[in-house]
Amino acid sequence: MRVANTAAEIRRQLKSLRGSKTIAFVPTMGCLHEGHLSLIRKARQMADIVVVSIYVNPLQFGPNEDLDRYPRTFENDAKLCAEAGVDFIFHPTTLYPKSGPKVTLKATKLSECLCGASRPGHFDGVVTVVNILFNIVQPDIAIFGEKDWQQLAIIKRMVSDLQMAIEIIGCPTLRESDGLALSSRNRYLSGGDRTVALAISKSLIAMQQLAASGESDIEAVKAVATRILHNAGITPDYLDIRSAASLKMKRKLNRQPARAFIAANVGNTRLIDNMPLEFVAQTEEF
Ligand code: AMP
User: Fold this and answer.
1) Which residue has the least CA distance to atom 5 on ligand 1?
2) Whose CA is nearest to atom 19 of ligand 1?
3) Would you say the CB of residue 170 lies under 6 angstroms from ligand 1?
4) What is the CA radius of gyration of the chain?
5) Predicted local distance difference test score (pLDDT) of residue 93
6) What is the per-residue pLDDT for 166?
7) Measured from the CA of 27, which atom of ligand 1 is nearest?
8) What is the model's pLDDT at position 281?
9) 3-class secondary structure per residue, 37-58
10) Residue 180 confidence (pLDDT)
């Protein structure tokens, strides 16, 4: 496994391999956990060469967010990458000019809801950095987690709108055995906060169960989830049910793919999670 710290270095390393071999790319902000490793394993299965980037992108953090305290654990990350069969780590110190970038990308309409509404500019920062990384690495395939469903939807749309020849693959969310979605930010949670945080996956599961039992009324489904969150002492930033691909609001659950989304602060930590809702119409009994 080789580690590159500059764009020129990783370009040089990949140059001779390009063309004859396929490249799968996994962009991350480091502090790697099993969720990231599941993406890396998928990349390993799908291509000849696996490139992982580790870069905490300042452009996607708001002024009062956790950029400075975001966990940075490069040595351990590199060890995990080596064990998982990664070929190249791209670990730049910065990707922007000292004075800051003067040309950036703007995310699509898909960024106006959910995390985009609560974190203005966040997805502009994400699409800008992912573009820069794609330009440097020039992968055939890039792998993202469904944990950040809105991000995945925006990246898919970016690649099609900007005619990039990169296949985007989404991977399911990895969870602790009690349901908590793995996240680099979970390490901020105190023991008590962690117990409280469980209400997020519990309320998503409750929504799944209601949808599967034929409940089509979105307000009724959301009310049950809200109660579970409130009982745990959580007031969510958002709790929403939307179409899975367009992220448009749904009026009723039906056979079209829908997803439930929650963002909430637990202690000082912002957590997000989402799950698919599979509506099953109940047939009338005679
Ligand atoms: P991050 O380092 O948080 O920017 O995440 C890097 C990639 O890992 C993104 O595509 C995330 O969606 C994905 N990811 C984060 N947590 C999980 C998880 N629990 N399961 C699967 N993928 C994840």
Assistant:
1) 28
2) 182
3) no
4) 20
5) 97
6) 98
7) 6
8) 87
9) HHHHHHHHHHCCEEEEEECCCH
10) 98
Distances (CA, A) of 264 to 17, 201, 267, 272: 44, 11, 10, 7
For ligand 1, the distance from its centroid to the CA atom of residue 286, given in whole angstroms, is 48
**Burial of residue 29 (number of CB atoms within 10 Å: 0-12, 13-18, 19+):** middle
Given a cut of 50, the residues of the chain with pLDDT beneath it are: none
54 DSSP β-pair partners: 28
Q: Provide the whole-model pTM.
A: 0.97
Burial class (CB in 10 A: 0-12, 13-18, 19+), 205: middle
Separation of CA 144 and ligand 1 centre (Å): 7
Two structure tokens written together for 162: 């900007």
The gap between the terminal CA atoms of the chain, to the nearest Å, is 65
Question: What element of type H or E holds 191?
Answer: helix 191-212
Question: Would you call 118 helix, strand, or coil by DSSP?
Answer: helix
**Amino acid type, 175:** R
Nearest to 151 by CA among 17, 9, 272: 272
pLDDT digits (tens, 9 = 90+) for 175-193: 999 999 999 999 999 999 9
Cβ-count burial 171-191 (b if 16+ within 10 Å, e if not): bebbeeeeebbbbbbbebbee
Q: DSSP label at 173?
A: P
CA of 81 to the centre of ligand 1 (A): 15
